[in-house]
Amino acid sequence: FTTNFTEKKDIVLKSYLFGLVLYLACFQVLIVANMLLENNFFHVCTIFSYSMGFLSLLGYLITLIRGIYKKKQGLPEKSVEKIVYPRSKKVESIILWVAFGGIFLFQMIQALRLTYPDGDDAYYVGTATYGANIPEMYSRIPYTGATTEFDTRHCLAPFPYVISFLSRMSHMETSIIAHCVCPVMFITFAYGIYYLMAKKLCKEKREVPLFMVIISTLFLFGNYSVYSMETFLMTRSRQGKASLGSFALPLGFYLMMLLSEKLDKQGKGQKKDRVLLYVLLACNGLVAALFTTLGNFIYPCMIGVCSLCICFRKKEWKKLFPMALTCVPSIVMAGLYFLIR
Predict the structure, then answer these.
(1) Beta strands in 65-209 (DSSP E)
(2) Which of the residues 3, 50, 266, 281 could staple to 326 if both were Cys, CB 3.0 to 4.6 A apart?
(3) What is the pTM of this model?
(4) pLDDT digit string (tens) for 234-275?
(5) How many CB atoms lie within 10 A of CB 149?
(6) How far apart are CA 158 and CA 302, in angstroms?
(7) Computed from CA positions of residues 305, 307, 308, 309, in that sequence, does the dihedral angle turn out positive or negative?
């Protein structure tokens, strides 16, 4: 999926980022469908784990077959222009990457060591805990454990059940998943997005590590409020609204940057690349809905503003239609919310 519009050296990072987006989007579709049908969450876990295993194997086989086919056909690989920098600039780049690596490692250690308790854990971790042990979804009050009517307010943003699913599959406690696994997974995800943004924004390759050092430093000293974006990423990545602002929105912005670049190019493979980007934007909308119901409104607004800017710059208003289609999953989820409420 990613080999169509990525450089070879970025394929591992983009496969992780885009693969996680597709993974969470599939989870959102499956769990919402089963939730509305009042099915057993344990059955959802079984179906989803087997489905993801099958799709992963299928993707690997397709990639392998494509690689063998291209090798037999002798198709030329995309050439990447190599720029030779003076030795002093190479040393500077290495120092900056080491500095970023040190800051990143320190942040990861602190995220795991301190575990950052938060008041909202009473809902997110509480919901994830009974979700991992009780098959009925959204049937208990997480604060007290008492039975209640189906929770129509939160059911369309079942991010706690991602933690429940990981807990059941790994046989680890939900609190460990929420406080240890989620920070590692999502902080890495966020820095991966900023790295890809840096490669698009920086004119020279040696500026990329400087960009990453600045970003990581801002996150290191951004705890001036419990509501700042830096605090959300470093201490509350297991919570829906924090994940929306830290991952779904930045990734959507990066995909729009990539789409704008692809619209400037004409060629045989560019149309296919654009279609894949539209699919990723739509799947990212499902991920935003998975994190929080607000994602159904904020994400389409961001896509709409970016689309208008792109079309205004290019004077090609017909491009608005396929961009608007990427917001359909968010609109459907928003419609479901008002319907069941």
Answers:
(1) none
(2) 281
(3) 0.89
(4) 888 888 888 998 899 999 999 999 988 888 776 666 778 888
(5) 7
(6) 22
(7) positive
